[in-house]
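agent> fetching stored inputs for the zinc ion docking request
agent> found them:
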Amino acid sequence: MADLRRLDELLRAEAGDAGCSAGEAILDAYVELELAGEDPARVFPGTAIHLQSCPGCRADHDGLLEAARRFADVTPE
Ligand SMILES: [Zn+2]
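agent> prediction call returned; pasting tokens
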């Protein structure tokens, strides 16, 4: 089973998961790119991969995105 676990770690490393270390600063920039119609996965590929596998960070991201959209909605002309 040791080999299997090692393979799992290798695959995870190859996937480029940035981990939970991304933090709010990167999530902020990530959401800004999304709102600007850009592809944030090209700028923060590790974060994009991590968001797919980490419910906690995805919830943070979703909250930021929703707040940003709500804020954009009430922006005066
Ligand atoms: Zn995370």
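agent> quick read of the result: The CA atoms of residues 23 and 57 lie 9 Å apart.
agent> awaiting further instructions
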